[in-house]
Amino acid sequence: MTTLSAFNKFTDNLGEQEQLMPVLFMGHGSPMNGILDNEFSRKWAQLAKEIPTPKAVLVVSAHWLSKGTRITAMDFPKTIHDFGGFPQELFNVQYKAPGSPELAKETASIIKSTAVEMDHDWGLDHGAWTVIRHMYPEANIPVLQLSIDYTKGAQYHYDLSKELAALRKKGVLIVGSGNMVHNLRMVAWDKLNETEYGFDWAVQMNTTFKDLILNGQHDKLIKYERLGREAMLAIPTPEHYWPLLYTLGLKGSKDVVSFFNDKVVAGSLTMTSVMIG
Predict the structure, then answer these.
(1) pTM of the entire structure?
(2) By CB atoms within 10 Å of each CB, which of 21, 29, 136, 271 scores lowest?
(3) Residue 193 sits in a domain of what CATH number?
């Protein structure tokens, strides 16, 4: 396990730096991606080598919904296996990255729109560790999670994300983890092993979302329910979509947008991911 002394160097000096950290939206897909060597996990590992090494990682995961906003504030967050029906190998994974109470307090201090509660009970859920363990397998970079207030709407989450912008100047990698298109009720279970398979409406919405992101039409993405029946099929519930808004809200005027892992799988899920910066 990484010791406190080994990771203090990342957060003792969170002064501003010249280069802004990029912001990522990760389509995390199945929890099995946490242990599989596939095109998605390989891209996550490759991406970590292409971007600057962060001082810390802050994840907004679809799998931590709370009343109010919370942030993990423990020295060593536990690995949460928040799923069922998967092989024991997946449950055996322990991603022992440190946390950072100092960064948690700093993050809470820069969010002015709401009070952020220090959380000592959560940890790293599969929206976080299944992705981050491929990026930073040595678990030597502090990882924190910021919860999503389920009582608020899309505009609120987009606006709150803007308050996190200062962290990009301090070397913190902010990651939204969910899926743009996520309809588990319509999954084509017989197509799970295919590398790419999408229903027409899922392919259409994946293209629409990408076009709106590239064109900076964030207002339409915030009001996604106005995009028609296909959008409601893509987002039957918003928790996997909200992390995208946390990413988009952090886009600056000079940031370049690019996509990776751009595939529709199992009919009704997209792995499409976004890098800003």
Answers:
(1) 0.93
(2) 136
(3) 3.40.830.10
